[in-house]
């Protein structure tokens, strides 16, 4: 079996890490599906998508400078009309923002020491 760029092949997941899944093929070659190539949506935990021992279809994207296979599962999936984005964090409460502004203003006043730069102690010669 020749695994050239653009080829689609079936392989077995041999190892899952935080950054991707390693896939082994019948010919003995192994490649990596990077976490960004697992799904069209944001993948927070790769273990939600693949597990060791799973059989998956992958597309060969190419080889890196050291000859290792660069693979994708996402390329074989139908692209959704709108890619879901991670949920944004809402605004902080007005009380928190007021306290933060007060803290920053006080910190700035303390560091400028009334407009003067803080001095550092000098060593005396003996």
TrEMBL record:
GO terms for biological process: translation. Residues 101-126 are annotated as: Disordered. GO terms for molecular function: mRNA binding; structural constituent of ribosome. SMART domains: S1. It comes from the Bacteria. Residues 112-126 have a biased composition (Low complexity). Residues 6-74 form the S1 motif domain. Residues 101-111 have a biased composition (Basic and acidic residues). Binds mRNA; thus facilitating recognition of the initiation point. It is needed to translate mRNA with a short Shine-Dalgarno (SD) purine-rich sequence. This is S1 RNA-binding domain-containing protein. It comes from Deinococcus psychrotolerans.
């Amino acid at each position: 079996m020749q695994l050239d760029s653009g080829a689609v092949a079936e392989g077995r997941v041999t190892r899952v890490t935080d950054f991707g899944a390693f896939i082994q093929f019948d010919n003995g070659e192994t490649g990596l599906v990077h976490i960004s190539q697992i799904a069209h949506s944001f993948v927070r935990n790769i273990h939600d998508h693949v597990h060791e021992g799973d059989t998956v279809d992958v597309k060969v994207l190419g080889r890196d400078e050291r000859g290792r296979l660069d693979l994708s599962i996402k390329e074989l999936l139908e692209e959704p009309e709108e890619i879901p984005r991670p949920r944004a964090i809402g605004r902080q409460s007005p009380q928190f923002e007021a306290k933060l502004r007060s803290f920053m203003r006080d910190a700035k006043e303390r560091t400028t020491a009334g407009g003067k730069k803080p001095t550092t102690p000098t060593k005396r010669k003996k």
